[in-house]
User: What shape does this take?
Amino acid sequence: MLLFRWAILLLLLVAGVSFAFYAGTGQIKYRRFGWIVLKWTLLAAFGFFAVLIAERIA
Assistant: This one.
């Protein structure tokens, strides 16, 4: 569980750095990469927390 939390944190950091590169350079590829990483990170996090909630209910 700790490993998954660190992975989510690092992926969010990667997305943030990508958006910072986009703001600094104006290149669309950084924004596109940031959105892809952010989307999949949030989907994985929601799935992870859904499993945790379902585990507590059952």
In short: The first helix runs from residue 2 to 25. Residues 24 and 48 are 33 Å apart (CA to CA). DSSP finds two helices and no strands in the chain.
